[in-house]
Amino acid sequence: MKLSIIRTTLLVSAILSANAAIALNPEPINKCNSYSLACRNTLISRLSSEQLNPFLRLIQSGTDDREAKNYNQAIQTFQAALQLAQRLNYADGQWLARYNMAQTYLESDNFPKALELHQQNLAFFLQRQEDFDDKTKAPYTLIYISDIYTAQKNYAKAIESLNQAIAFIEKVNLSPYSDSKARVLQQLGMNYFLAGNMPAADTNLAASLAAYQNIRKQRVGEQLAQQVDYSYEIEVNRWRQQVLVAQNRFNEALELAEQNRARAFVGLLASRLNSTSEFPATDDAPNIEQIKQIAKAENATLVTYSVIYDFNPQGAFWAENYQKFRATKLLIWVIKPTGEVAFRRSNIVSGNASLQEIVRQARASIGARGIGISVTAARVVNNNRPNNAQTAELKQLHQLLIQPIANLLPTNPSNRIIFIPQDFLFLVPFPALQDSAGKYLIEKHTILTSPSIQVLQLTRSQQQRIQQEAKGILIVGNPTMPSIRVSPNQPPQQLPSLPGAEKEAIAIAKMFATQPLLGANATKATVLESLSKARIVHLATHGLLDDIGGFFSSLALAPTDRDNGFLTAREIISLKLSAELVVLSACDTGRGQISGDGVVGLSRSLIGAGVPSVIVSLWSVPDAPTASLMTAFYQNLKSGSDKAQALRSAMLKTMKDYPNPINWAAFTLIGAANSSGTLQAVTGGVSVANNSNTNSTQAAVRYYTVFPVPDNVTDYRESPSLRVPGEVDIFFHSTLSFEQLIDFYRQAYRQRGLTENTGNTRLTKDSAQLVFFGSPNGKRIIIQASEDYLGRGFRSVSVRFE
To answer: Keyword Signal on this protein (predicted)?
Structure first.
């Protein structure tokens, strides 16, 4: 049995975080956090950086070897790290080196040796507890021991080890921020489930979920808890869904499935709606009766999917790493507008390709390959019907996703179905799925999607709050393209022009008696100024995707001497928009990093900015069919169809001229389906200054300040500011030198009219600091950077208000 592993870099980064905290935090650290792998006393008081760095480099080198499957070399390197830690009398290091050797043996399927090393670590810790600042090493080592027993299906021994971990935790007074007990309870619940003891499984998983929720609230405070990462709760949530289903408690399982779905996004939407007292909202997950009411209010059949993965005893399920796990079954709920709730499941035969691979193959079969920038324009696929290979892939997905619930779906094609996918199911082209008779799903149903059931309720509220003054349309087509560096070792190259998008924009503008923004006029500043005034926004340009959380997914606009022309997702979500509909007629705009929290990227950012309905594309569509589909869509909209009906009719019309699904199935409506009378009556454009020198950071009304970030950052993170309510702090890694970082931020903030407090400027060989005054909220902006202690060539940077 093959076991995936927890990346050692997570453990090493815990060590580094202590050093980074010292460099970035001017206040002294007097006490170790018991939930950290190591703390200041261990790293600074006991070892100098000159002693520590060679050990950390050995750990990093061994990790690299293991990831490259050079297991023998990895073992030798970790053995050298163990010997060095022993010479230094470095207890934490000895534990870490043994842990990594054990993980390497696990990955190479040597269970006995892995078990032996973890047992050595447990005995070592218990013998030298006073030398460890992190007391959670004992329960976590017992978890690792239980993992091996679980992999061997020895659930009784696994449960015995986990009960020992509980006993240790209760004996030692751990920090309330420690998640060790929550993790042990989770492992207990999983093992009881696998052993067939459902009551015990339910008790432990429920306790684990409650513990994770409590930790999250304690770490950030009750007011901000809904805005932070829910990754800790995702895995336990999915396991408990299985327990409830095994007990035939299907409605409770549905409530649980909704509970952690897009929770951070829901919290953001609810908090923004609550800023308008006329439309109060809650971020509490809906119960079964409220779910039924949402289906009734939407007058739609809701279909919720929950993806269940293989048990993986060594790798916790995180929002970002679901691709590494094999999906084994789908849990499916159908909620009808009449109030009936039905449950079905779809098992994925282990001998076949994984569900992830089936989705990928289905997309590839119709020509939807890859993501990101295309160096050549997409071509129209021939007008013949799809070939047998395409049909087989689309039918296989239909069999897994639709066939189990086919008899529960409405028979009237005008009745809506709202799919709530999960993980990679967001990439499924639902309109193109084919039944056994070869009929496409869009031919039988009106389709739209949503990140969660509750997001439907919130986007409905968003539509009600839209200002009626916004009545025009903003149309952007084929801007003068900006340049981008495709790879670090290549010079920037200009994105290819989109002449078809320009023709599309001109044709749509004629329908609304206005002029589009084209070429050099479609600058970021002009678009930002216009966005808040438009009822409809149509953007026909390149969409670029990123792999660091979706924050830097962006739309390509015309560059100026003041900006590079890219409007990023992190900038969009900061805006206060009044548009009822945004159409992103661009390459791959519907894709971003996809997680347990939903699609992170442009569509999420637009809905977060106040837009109730967004149409995005799941792949790059050829020019001619896109123009045909979009023209038909707006004609339908102006004729009185709601957004979902208008899109379906446009797809059916385009299908007649361009039958292959790549030409018509990419577009999906996310959010509210209904159209207001104001939307259907839209005519004319929006007034803009059309001044490329407009300061784009001040032209738009924003929820919070967007800090500038240099190009090519990694590990980018955002978190609600604990010092200035309503603002957002950021953290990232950059390969720029300290001098380059200082130059970047000096230029960025001087352009914005801020003043540097030179008395607080600091630059040393391993850290830097800048402070600026004059921000719109009157607070200081502090930029701090520190060197990576593993010598990997990047700087850790934080930007915050104080």
So the answer is: yes
Number of domains comprising the chain: 4
Answer whether 145's CB lies under 8 Å from 118's CB: yes
Q: What is the pTM of this model?
A: 0.84
Instruction: Look at residue 715 and give its three-state secondary structure.
Output: strand
Q: 686 burial class (0-12, 13-18, 19+ CB within 10 angstroms)? A: buried
The confidence score (pLDDT) of residue 350 equals 55
> Which residues of the chain are under the pLDDT cut of 70?
1-49, 175-177, 219-231, 262-283, 312-324, 350-352, 369-390, 467-470, 486-488, 545-551, 586-601, 688-700, 703, 789-792
What's the rounded Cα separation, in Å, for the pair 693 and 714?
30
CA distance 558 to 691: 12
In which domain, by residue range, is 617 found?
468-698
Asked if 77 and 177 sit in the same domain, the reply is yes
Contact 625, 380 (CB under 8 A): yes
Q: How far apart are CA 282 and CA 200, in angstroms?
A: 32
- With H, G, I as helix, E, B as strand and everything else as coil, classify residue 631: helix
Q: Which phi and psi (to 5°) does residue 105 adopt? A: -65, -35
Position 742: which residue type?
I
One domain for residues 448 and 476: no
Distances (CA, A) of 138 to 18, 146, 155, 373, 570: 21, 12, 20, 48, 40
CATH code at 761? 3.30.310
Q: Which tokens is 252 given?
A: 């409770």
Same domain, 175 and 285: no
- 611 & 735 share domain: no
For residue 786, CA distances in Å to 27, 299, 767, 794 come to 15, 54, 4, 9
* Domain shared by 389 and 415, yes or no: yes
Length reported for the chain: 802
